Automatic annotation (TrEMBL):
Protein name from the UniProt record: Alpha/beta hydrolase
PANTHER family: AB HYDROLASE-1 DOMAIN-CONTAINING PROTEIN-RELATED, ESTERASE_LIPASE_THIOESTERASE DOMAIN-CONTAINING PROTEIN
GO molecular function terms listed in the Swiss-Prot or TrEMBL record: hydrolase activity
InterPro entries in alphabetical order: AB_hydrolase_1, AB_hydrolase_fold, Sec-Metab_Biosynth_Hydrolase
Species this chain originates from: Stenotrophomonas daejeonensis
Record keywords, A-Z: Hydrolase, Signal
Region forming the signal peptide: 1-20
Pfam families: Abhydrolase_6
Keyword Disulfide bond: no
Sequence ranges assigned to domain AB hydrolase-1 in this UniProt record: 35-255
């Protein structure tokens, strides 16, 4: 008859082996990945509310970052800190201006992929403002409210609440868009004209998803940036607005998971 000690040892070995197998499986399919979601201007972390539960249900750790929207380099440093804190590999996801932020994070071997959701992917020296107007079609300038001035001379930009639904979220129910308009986070005007550093998409695989009815960033501009970044997969959703992560969370989550699994170790 086996002793109690031998049985306990065998049980411990079996449990350790099972844990190692589970950890290896999680690494192989990317379930040990942290997905960091970076919202853009005129939005906030809750814009990812439809995406987060779809990713967590698949076993990923998800962080919806609080993007300060003050400066491209400064906001990227906030994301740098979240990447450092993550215990394993990271996929960065940026919406709109958040795409410029994830493009400007510092090089880190933890970062395995970038996902651009109706987002800017600037080249070195480019600005968000210049990219917005490079191709015709953006109606954002006419939808902006008068800037809110700061004591230090800076200015914050908001979308007028009466224009928000059609400008920003036309495929979201009007009542929901009204809440989004009231809770929008302003962008510092200085961030619009801040030149990008050497972008991370030059050395990190990138994926893109956007709607062809985007009124903030013209679809031609988004396709141009996706092609230039060598997108591994580009999804264009007919009729989708600028907040495609809110109106089409399942499609956005699917692209993110594709990026995770394609770059899993």
């Amino acid at each position: 008859m086996k002793s109690f000690k031998s049985i306990a040892l065998a049980t411990a070995i079996a449990a350790t082996t099972a844990f190692a197998a589970d950890a290896s499986a999680a690494e192989a399919d990317g379930r040990n990945t942290t997905v960091i979601l970076v919202h853009g201007a005129f939005a906030e972390s809750a814009s990812w509310n439809g995406v987060v539960p779809r990713l967590t249900a698949r076993g990923y750790t998800v962080v919806a970052a609080g993007n300060p929207l003050r400066s491209v380099a400064g906001d990227a440093e906030v994301v740098d800190g979240l990447v450092e804190r993550a215990p394993g590999p990271v996929v960065l996801v940026g919406h709109s201006y958040g795409g410029a932020v994830i493009s400007n994070v510092h090089a880190n071997p933890k970062i395995k992929a970038l996902v651009y959701v109706a987002a800017f992917a600037p080249e070195q020296g480019e600005t968000v403002l210049e990219l917005t107007g490079r191709f015709p079609g953006s109606t954002l300038p006419a939808a902006l409210a008068e800037p809110v001035r700061h004591a230090d001379g800076g200015e914050d930009l908001y979308i007028r609440q009466d224009a928000f639904w059609q400008q920003f979220a036309s495929d979201v129910p009007e009542a929901e868009a009204a809440v989004m308009a009231a809770t929008q986070r302003p962008l510092s005007q200085a961030a619009l004209t801040e030149a990008s550093r050497q972008p991370r998409w030059k050395d990190t695989p990138a994926w893109f998803i956007y709607g062809d009815a985007d009124r903030n960033i013209p679809a031609r501009a988004l396709q141009y940036m996706a092609d230039r970044a060598g997108s591994r997969g580009t999804v264009v959703i007919p009729g989708a607005s600028h907040v495609v992560m809110t109106s089409q969370p399942q499609a956005v989550a699917a692209v993110i998971e594709q990026a995770v699994q394609a770059t899993a170790r």
